[in-house]
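I am writing to request your help with a piece of structural work I have in hand. The matter concerns a single protein, recorded as an amino acid sequence and a row of backbone structure tokens. Could you please explain, in whatever detail you think fit, how the structure tokens follow from the sequence? Thank you for your consideration; the sequence and its tokens are set out here:
>
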Amino acid sequence: MRSDSPAMAAPEAAVRRRRVADGSLGPGSAPAPAPEPAGGPARLREGTFWLTRIVLLRALAFVYFVAFLVAFHQNKQLIGDHGLLPCRLYLRSIQRHFQGRLGWDAWSYAPTIFWLLDWSDVNTRLDAVAVLGLGISSFVLIAGCANMLLMATLWVLYLSLVNVGQVWYSFGWESQLLETGFLGIFLCPLWTLARLPESTPTSRIVLWGFRWLIFRIMLGAGLIKIRGDQCWHDLSCMDFHYETQPVPNPLAYFLHRSPWWFHRFEVLSNHFVELLVPFFIFLGRRMCLLHGVLQVLFQVALICSGNLSFLNWLTIVPSLACFDDAVLAALWPSAPGGLRDQVLKLQQQEALGAQPPAYGRRLRKAVNVALGMLLAWLSIPVILNLLSSRQVMNTSFNPLRIVNTYGAFGSITKERTEVVLQGTAHPNASAPDAHWEEFEFKCKPGEPRRRPCLISPYHYRLDWLMWFAAFQTYEQNEWILHLVGKLLAGDTEALTLLAHNPFTGREAPRWVRGEHYRYRFSRPGGRHAAEGAWWVRKRIGAYFPPLRLEDLRGYFRAREWPFPEPVRPHA
């Protein structure tokens, strides 16, 4: 019997009426798969999201992989046993705050599995968490499938790192990854690892959870700007942004010299994408697709113009929930038995009313409804914050960071300043003949002739914190003096955070000082650029005075940091 016969039309019409009534068939969705055209494969119909789940999971797994890779490479130096801010001391301070009890108060303040682990070798535990996260995220990325247990494990592992990471994990994208990862748990079946689990269709509630997330991310970023710096009103912010952003890349050097009218266009485009485009989500399928396209293109433009860690890559993930199978089918070949063919058969079964077993369907629906209610409840303070004239950005209102508030660049710095660390082997730091040599960081500006780096989506956490420290004081950033002590001792672990140690193969410096410089891009074609300089810098003054290792002994003792022993070079 042909699928387009009258005998088949009546049941399909009934199924369509039922799906429209319960809201599972949205506006613009077709009731049945299109018949296979002559000479070509059948097109997938609109309104189903089997392929969307695969794309979402792979995109999320990619960001998780990068985040755990950063953790594996840098956590020991930052929060390990001898890190700049050891997480063991942080956990102990929480215990002391709650009178030494490891009860609900401590768990709710910092939910982390490290409460359950032995702290005698934190480095090994940190590496184990990162390696496990890398393994699971690699599997999901390659296979394009997962179950709730795997995705929940990724979420718990990263939550555990964020809640002991202190200032190194204080960026808005950490909470954004946790919220995105939490939603990713509910994309999957409980046990099975099939890419197209017939018993677990992609829930509309979960999809709208992703859409609600991208709506809040973009609207929050737009509102914090128009409520913040005046340059977002007079359209001049992009005159400064490329030069003063935390970690510029090579393209930023040239974009900074764009004509004034182009910078004004950039600000207007930013306002359009962040303040108006988010509402496209609620205006039907076509406008939702347009929203997804514009947001992805916007994030790609931001990726190209600066090193903003994995923030923009992560922001693309919830935007993918705007695309259904009819759109994403182009990503897969139309081979017989392939994913497109399998999704077409699933669409046909769905159109004929085939459904998973009643018990599993009801249980899954109850879980999804509970998720929707949880998201709605946790969104109340977020909505109030968006509506408030005193809006704050990148804030979590619950310790699990399930629903958060976001924002970026509410204010733009007009001048770039940098802290440059210098060391000397001279016994007298104030001697006129003391030769000061510079430590070079991985990515932040230092030596003017060094080309800006290109690392996105990777992230050097120390470099980012050095950017913040440059317009604060060293008293507000105690970890800087801890870093100085390690440089004075020639600590090999800490030196892996740097790109260049001028004292390699020699004894560690006797003195280290912090110098404060003002940086600006050189002018392409100008004298400095002709000499190979990407930057022009001018000394502002001392950031902190010359220090010896012994000068820091009391400072280290007061903070319970282990005092580093000088490392002697090999003969």
